[in-house]
Amino acid sequence: MAEAYAYPTGLPAEGPGSAWLRANMVSTLDGAAQHDGRSQPISCAADMRIFGTLRALADVVIAGAETVRQEGYRPARAREAFAARRAAAGQGPAPAVAVVSGSLDLDFSLPLFTEPLVPTLVVTGSGAPADRIAAARKAGAEVVIAGEGARVDPARAVRELADRGLRRQLTEGGPRLLGQFVAAGVLDELCLTLSPMLTAGDAQRIAGGPGVTVPERFTLASLLEEDGFLFGRYRR
């Protein structure tokens, strides 16, 4: 599975194209990205295996603050099965987690910040509250400024993380953050699990926010199936 989901090789060491941003999302047949505010109810065991594999291949896992809160994010863990592969690629034992938040309204006493194998990053704008920046740093997090005012610029976030050597990037949403990456034109790949479930209701889609002027077409790179779930990979 690691070979099937391997990141592209030959990326330039710096500049445009030096990072590869991959998203991993799950959707029901009727377009819901979550049920009761969480993605787990529409997932399955095979989806979670792919989830673990994608994390094990990444340098950094990027998530929005609301997703971190709703999904109860913890530090990424080291996986023995991927230890040799990560070492050969010059990676640490586990990916860093980067939390995107303009306000830094985060609980810095949680294990995500106090117990990571590698320091958690918080990506924010230059206008973030100074006391919250200080609290993040006191907790051991690395603060990454990637925008003016309170807004995080998605393209700049990708560049800032790449400049820190975090070039194999994985975002797990949520929908608002993924929508920002799509609108900014910086998403390179989408790993989408299509769940054979129907939820109705008004749940979010996998990407939200302002639409793009012209729909961007991606190419199907691979398609797997298990128990009625489809696991597709689409590339720009």
UniProtKB/TrEMBL annotation:
Pathway entry: Cofactor biosynthesis; riboflavin biosynthesis
Q: Which UniProt keywords apply?
A: NADP, Oxidoreductase
- In this chain the Bacterial bifunctional deaminase-reductase C-terminal domain maps to 20-221
Pfam families assigned to the protein according to its UniProt record, in alphabetical order: RibD_C (PF01872)
A biological process from GO: riboflavin biosynthetic process
Quick check: keyword NADP in the entry? Answer: yes
Claim: NADP is one of the keywords in the record: yes
Q: Which GO terms describe its molecular function?
A: 5-amino-6-(5-phosphoribosylamino)uracil reductase activity
The protein in question is named Diaminohydroxyphosphoribosylaminopyrimidine reductase
Q: Which organism is it from?
A: Streptomyces nanshensis
